[in-house]
Description:
The protein is mostly helical. It has helices at about 5-20, 25-35, 45-60, 65-70, 85-100. The longest helix is centred in the middle third of the chain and has 20 residues, at about 45-60.
Amino acid sequence: xxxxxxxxxxxxxxxxxxxxxxxxxxxxxxxxxxxxxxxxxxxxxxxxxxxxxxxxxxxxxxxxxxxxxxxxxxxxxxxxxxxxxxxxxxxxxxxxxxxxxxxxxxxx
Length: 108
């Protein structure tokens, strides 16, 4: 489901929600965990998230075409409210990871 078009668009909407509902960069990860998992992130999880965010932010800052390719999919219906495209693309990666955790998914 990681690359399913519907889940990609849902992750984009989730990233937008994280960014628009939490102004504090430090509080965003915890907010994302609470929304997706109904619990706070552990200290170990926050370290992993911080590394992911740093890595992806550097990637998108250095590769504007990757940012455009991710966010400008003509099939997307959802239109993000957050204006900083690099930040939105960066947080998309965390949103996508959280939505694809076994802990998040419902199974029969």
